[in-house]
Write a structure and sequence with these properties.
168 residues, binds iron/sulfur cluster, 32% helix
Length: 168
């Protein structure tokens, strides 16, 4: 059977691309979906030039104007990330992706409920990672999920059904 091509946050398949040089291997994804899926790994923070390792970052500000800020040196990485993401999603047109699995809680990859800090350093789970938002706006019909939700077998089956529908 021809495998289905989908994008995935690179750290989830064990690539050491996180800010601390580690990964977030979601072994169950490989164990359960590997037979159907050909993964295209993408790490927005590493690929946009922030390097590995790098300083950890977080989202700050208002929902419609989120900023990506490094935690200690307080550098604003928003524009670098947005510029890169707009180019990258346009390139992804050629990849014929049938979906994307995002790393939950990440200020770049989180699909929903990412922590956003206000000017009093109080967080609320109201954000979307900058790359995830641009991807979802560019490909509004593509099935997307976060790895944290795909632990649930029913949600996983539903996701596979949706990506198969795109492929047909
Ligand atoms: S969550 Fe996204 S940006 Fe962060 S390490 Fe994983 S792939 Fe890279």
């Amino acid at each position: 059977m021809e495998k289905i091509r989908i994008g995935i946050s690179s750290c989830l398949i064990g690539n050491p691309v996180r800010y601390d040089g580690g990964h977030k291997l979601a072994r169950f994804l490989l164990d359960t979906l590997d037979q159907y899926i050909d993964y295209l790994p993408i790490c927005p923070e590493a690929e946009c030039g922030m390097g590995i390792p790098r300083e950890a970052m977080r989202l700050e500000g208002k929902f419609d104007a989120l900023r990506l800020i490094t935690r200690l040196s307080r550098e604003d990485k928003t524009d670098i990330m947005i510029r890169w993401a707009i180019n990258r999603v346009a390139q992804l047109e050629r990849e014929n992706l049938c979906g994307f699995i995002f790393k939950s809680d990440s200020p770049s990859c989180g699909m929903e409920r990412v922590k956003v800090y206000d000017d009093k350093d109080v967080s609320a789970r109201t954000g979307i990672g900058l790359f995830a938002r641009i991807f979802m706006e560019y490909f509004p019909g593509l099935p997307v999920e976060e790895e944290s939700r795909l632990c649930d077998a029913t949600l996983r089956e539903n996701f596979v059904e949706r990506i198969l529908t795109i492929k047909r």
